[in-house]
Amino acid sequence: MDVDDSAPRGGGEPPRIRRLEESVVNRIAAGEVIQRPSSAVKELVENSIDAGASTVSVAVKDGGLKLIQVSDDGHGIRFEDLPILCERHTTSKLSAYEDLQTIKSMGFRGEALASMTYVGHVTVTTITEGQLHGYRVSYRDGVMENDPKPCAAVKGTQVMVENLFYNMAARRKTLQNSNDDYPKIVDFISRFAVHHINVNFSCRKHGANRADVHSASTSSRLDAIRNVYGVSVVRDLMEIEVSDENAVDGIFTMDGFISNANYVAKKTTMILFINDRLVDCTSLKRAIEFVYSAILPQASKPFIYMSINLPREHVDVNIHPTKKEVSLLNQEHIIETIKDAIEEKLMNSNTTRIFQTQTVNSSALAQANTQKEKGTDVSTATGAKSQKIPVSQMVRTDPLDPSGRLHTYWHGQSSNLEKKSDLVSVRNVVRSRRNPKDAGDLSSRHELLTEIDSNLHPGLLDIVKNCTYVGVADEVFALIQHNTRLYLVNVINVSKELMYQQALCRFGNFNAIQLSEPAPLRELLTMALKDDESMRDENDKEKLEIAEVNTEILKENAEMINEYFSIHIDQGGNLTRLPVVLDQYTPDMDRLPEFILTLGNDVTWDVEKECFRTAAAAIGNFYALHPPILPNPSGNGIQLYKKNKDQMASGEHADNDLTSTAPTEEDDVDQELLAEAEATWAQREWTIQHVLFPSMRLFLKPPKSMATDGTFVQVASLEKLYKIFERC
């Protein structure tokens, strides 16, 4: 019988204990800290936030295995610190063990960058404030591969990790699907964007024009959630606050947003920050899900965002290799308090529920009843799939449908009421003759679309389809590059035409933006008339009469504009819904009164084709990317935000104010208004780049007039520039 001599038996000698080589130790530790590409992204983003960055950009290739690139505009890294930057346990976050008790930064061990150099190729480019140039250096196994090289750089730091896990075959095999980790990375960035509302985050696949996550800094947490997760999530959220500061054994505060009983999702979304640190807490998540299980249907899960703040000495952050978990003092008490607060909030808010309903097909129901009376098996007669009933065999089953009434087809004498042939009746008749389920099958609408096609400028279409976005030039123009030419594009004109065309293309098939509160038409119209320059000579009584007339006009045509353009006006004359003309875009609601006045005044209601044209034009003008109402705070514009109320109210300032330097003391500026303006202008710039121009490439058919009216202006040509350089 064979015996394995290498294994000790009985009184045999035990194996020797050996000291592992440092490279082996470091690689084992690296595999524990950097478990997946998403772990590396999380560590790098946390470093950027610790560096005081206001902008963090992430680019990923093949799920992070080929490339991870994280750029920020933080304070950068000192030149003299670069040699030890990627050594293990080198950090600027703490100097003594006692510092862990009051640590504020997210990183503290000094292991993340070092670990990345042991499982990937790391290149760091950085510049600190006041330097004339930056430095770029590559690292391998914790040390520099060469001396730092001077290079051009923008403020902050860029860390590039290539070929992650190139030397860990087993780990790389478990991540064979290159796209497995990208959703996790997007999820991490989304969570950071919701919590750190003063930081601009973006995340995209390498080489992609459009970011999968892009959040502009904002003063509202709800706006941040809306930017990242969408309007459908925000409308079902409730704010919640919990404070237990008087308790001796559990001092903490919690604020956040939780979904109400109307929210429907297949998976729980829980965003938890404890002392500004993104963590998981399984016991808290289970406790919250238990509360919701008594309220939500079995298949639905909640959305939770929570920010918990405790004394730093009550939190042990050093219990997990990737810092994804923390240990709390009196954790059971904290969880129980939060659970009770959520339960109370849900019980107090659970007075109304919204259920999705499906309209019963009355003609199919009638057919089923007829066959049932004849003794025919309905399931056999209709088959597995219900066949479409020919138009010629359809009968009117809705008494409110005018297309089925006899007087619609009777051309004899009739009363004044019978002679009334408004646009709604005409539209219903046309629809019923063609396809009652297709509101877009109208000849007038097709004629307008044909006009757009026939008026197309082929040269501009090529520019739009194949251009590269460069950036915003000023409040009106943006720069694009096409082949070797540089163009100025009038953002207002382009967006207005795009919205007009989309209003006709999505005709009768809009998604809807639900207003948080119904907006009375009379109030909107009165506001618009007060701001209208042409109405300044009219007195208030005449303005109220005009508002009343326009309100009645819109109420009379409410059914038509709701069905065709998803602009819903209830019986009380309140605006409740607006159309989604472009996905991920909401119009500037400051211009809503002007839009309602335009609908009432400028739409030709009695001629079908002109009605569609003018209504679409009004929508196009409302949804166009006009400059925000608040002045641009960049440059000398900050002078308008001084706390001199008289100056701000009149909007006037002396010429010498424009040339003076910006105030250096924060007390001189209305910080709240300034923050709102900065967020608004930043959101507009993001929308131009990530919503307008991608949509232009897909949908815009530029008319010939844009070639001559200054919408597209060529400002430079590479060939001509070369000629100038040759002369020089």
TrEMBL record:
NCBIfam families named among the record's database cross-references: mutl
Keyword tags: DNA damage, DNA repair, Nucleus
Main location: nucleus
Family: Belongs to the DNA mismatch repair MutL/HexB family.
PANTHER family named among the record's database cross-references: DNA MISMATCH REPAIR PROTEIN MLH, PMS, MUTL (PTHR10073), DNA MISMATCH REPAIR PROTEIN MLH1 (PTHR10073:SF12)
Keyword Repeat set for record: no
Domain of life: Eukaryota
DNA mismatch repair protein S5 domain boundaries: 225-347
Protein name stated in the entry: DNA mismatch repair protein S5 domain-containing protein
Organism: Brachypodium distachyon
One GO location term (cellular component): MutLalpha complex
Residues covered by region (Disordered): 645-668
SMART domains given in the database record: DNA_mis_repair
GO molecular function, one term: mismatched DNA binding
Annotated localization: Nucleus
Pfam families associated with the record: DNA_mis_repair (PF01119), HATPase_c_3 (PF13589), Mlh1_C (PF16413)
Name of encoding gene: LOC100845473
GO biological process, one term: mismatch repair
